[in-house]
Structure formats: structure tokens, C-alpha cells
Design goal:
single chain, about 210 residues, alpha/beta, Rossmann fold, 5-stranded parallel β-sheet, two-stranded antiparallel ribbon
């Protein structure tokens, strides 16, 4: 709430307050350099805010505010996907999913990893090293992680970048399914994601102009 972000002497945004409930989505819009990525990183506790707090619900459904720079939920609560996809280039797409799940303490069989990749249109690429995949295919591998994520909140930075039309359609369906099942989604995108149900498109640039 009332978040502010500074880079050096420059204020990217100030006075940002927003809330995302279960079963809703928020599509953050704005041009390059307006602070969208910085805002997402603050929400996830990966970067400090110049001012303000991020409030996460407790298991008892009571909210406890903490300084934004000290708030960082684990993967059981939050799944963050940024520009750096965190893939191991010499491992196959399937091996990357299995390793990621193992590191995060999540159960994922090889068959489940292959199924997740197939759902992203990557069945024929599952056994190839990530380094030989296109940027869009690497994006698809990272998105496949969501299909086994227990997190109720997904925070995604430009998740549709580089995807072809079938992969984009599959990803949009995945997002809609997540929200319909009671999950929450916060994302940035230059594309019209076309999500239905409770949600909003929100402009960070308009917020900056009003501040």
C-alpha cells in the first residue's frame, strides 16, 4: 500500500495502492521504463520499496502488514516469473522442470513434466537442451512450471513474449483456469490477454500522472 520506487535520483512511481483478491486478475499496463517490473519485484519482496508496505494474508485469513523489503513469500504461496527465466541451458526442458520442482520441494514426476510441456506445445522439444530452443520456446518451458505450481498467486512479467499463436492461446487458457479455480494473477503485458471474470486492467503511467 502507498508504494514508492526510486532508481538513483529518479522516482519511478509514488503512491501506488492496489489489492488482488482470490479469484481475480490484475493486468498492469504501461510503456517501457515506467516501472512495471520494479513494481512486480517489490510486490514479491525481491526489491525494496522506497516507501510503503506489502500486506500478505496470514493462514488464519488475518492480514499482517510487513515492510515491503522484508516480505518474500515462498513458492507455496507465490510463483514469480520475471524476464530472467532461470533455466539451465545444458539441461533439457524436461530436466529443467524436474530440477526446479526438486529445488522447490514440490512433487513432480517425469511424466507430469512431459505433460506440462506438451500442454505448452513443446512435446517435441521436451528432450532437447534449452540452449537450442528459441526464446519463445524457452518462455514456454518457464510457463510450464505454472502447471505444477501450488501457489495461489502468480506474478508474471510479460509472460506472452515470444510465444506463437497456439502457445499464446494455451497460456491464456491456463491463466483463465487458474483464476476460475480461485487463484489470483498479477501480470504485465503489452498484449491484450483477454481474461474474463473479476479483474481489471490498470495503468501505471496513469497512476504516475495522477500522483
Amino acid at each position: 500500500m502507498d508504494l514508492a520506487c526510486q532508481k538513483g535520483q529518479r522516482t519511478l512511481f509514488d503512491g501506488v495502492s492496489l489489492a488482488v483478491a482470490a479469484g481475480t486478475w490484475l493486468h498492469i499496463e504501461g510503456g517501457n521504463g515506467c516501472g512495471k517490473t520494479s513494481l512486480l519485484r517489490i510486490l514479491c519482496g525481491l526489491s525494496p520499496a522506497a516507501r510503503g508496505q506489502v500486506i500478505w494474508p496470514e493462514p488464519s485469513n488475518e492480514a499482517r502488514p510487513e515492510p515491503a523489503q522484508r516480505t518474500r513469500p515462498d513458492r507455496s504461496v507465490l510463483h514469480y516469473m520475471g524476464h530472467a527465466l532461470g533455466l539451465k541451458p545444458d539441461l533439457t526442458a524436461c530436466e529443467n522442470l524436474c530440477l526446479d520442482a526438486q529445488v522447490s520441494g514440490l512433487p513432480l514426476s517425469r511424466a507430469q513434466a512431459l505433460q506440462a510441456l506438451a500442454a505448452q506445445g513443446l512435446h517435441s522439444r521436451a528432450h532437447l537442451p534449452v540452449r537450442v530452443l528459441s526464446q519463445g520456446q524457452r518462455q514456454g518451458v518457464a510457463l510450464a512450471r505454472l502447471r505444477s505450481s501450488p501457489a495461489r498467486l502468480w506474478v508474471l512479467d510479460e509472460p506472452l513474449v515470444g510465444l506463437d499463436a497456439p502457445a499464446t492461446a494455451a497460456t491464456r487458457a491456463l491463466f483463465q483456469e487458474h483464476v476460475n479455480a480461485g487463484g489470483a494473477l498479477v501480470m504485465t503485458s503489452h498484449h491484450d490477454v483477454g481474461l474474463q471474470g473479476p479483474g481489471a486492467r490498470w495503468s501505471l503511467e496513469a497512476q504516475r500522472a495522477a500522483a
